Amino acid sequence: LERNLYLMTQVLELGVPVVVALNMMDVAQAQGLTIDVDKLSQQLGVPIVPLQANKGQGLDALRRAIAKVLEQPTAAQGPAFPEAFEHEIARLREATDRAEEPFLLRRLLLDVGGHTERLLVAKHGPALADEVHAARARLVQAGHTLAGIEARIRYGWIRKAIAGCITRPAVRPVTWTDRLDRVLTHWFWGTLI
């Protein structure tokens, strides 16, 4: 759940209405997990619809939730980056004559030498590249290393948001795939099979 909510935090930055489809609820139940969907929805700030897509369960509820957020769009707030980081985003926004959205400029700062940097430098010229390098240097001077900052911020926000929403069993139940894995990954039987 945490790994998949990471993408959701990036989508939240776009400022568009979001509905989370929480699929594989049957698998979670088989593993003894209980997810308080209402509490999770409240803590994330977005509607969540539990699904079992392989059986078509919950698809009507998902359609209704999507229709509802399209009728009454609200943008949920995702994780906040440090103030120094947001200050650099504002500076870069001015350097691009406010032509670029903050989420794109955040990506520009984070993805050193990435596609976004090549695209925006080609669009706005080499002066933007100089601005980006200077912004990164100021962030490092302020104690915000770019390596890993995004993951730390996003996963920290996710951990807080899902706190108290998932109940795990004291002992994880053994499933048929666990039993099958025990044989297939065994040093002797797995090699023989």
Features:
mainly alpha; 4 strands; 11 helices; 193 residues; two-stranded parallel sheet
Quick summary:
This protein is mainly α and 193 residues long. 59% of the residues lie in helices and 5% in strands.
Report on the structure:
This protein has 193 residues and is mainly α. It contains eleven helices and four strands, in the order H-E-H-E-H-E-H-H-H-H-H-H-E-H-H. The strands form two sheets. Strands 1-3 form a two-stranded parallel ribbon. A two-stranded antiparallel sheet has the order 2-4. Helix 1 packs across helix 9 and helix 5 packs across helix 6. The two termini are 33 Å apart.
**Class derived from helix and strand content:** mainly alpha
Give the distance, in angstroms, between the N- and C-terminal Cα atoms: 33 Å
Give the total of beta strands. Answer: 4
Provide the low-confidence segments as ranges.
none
H/I helix tally: 11
Shape: globular
Q: Name the assembly state.
A: single chain
Trace the largest sheet across and list its strands: 1-3
Could you state the order of secondary-structure elements as H and E?
A: HEHEHEHHHHHHEHH
- Main pleated-sheet profile: 2 strands, parallel
Average pLDDT metric = 91
Radius of gyration: 22 Å
* Strand percent estimate: 5-15%
**Residue share in helices?**
55-70%
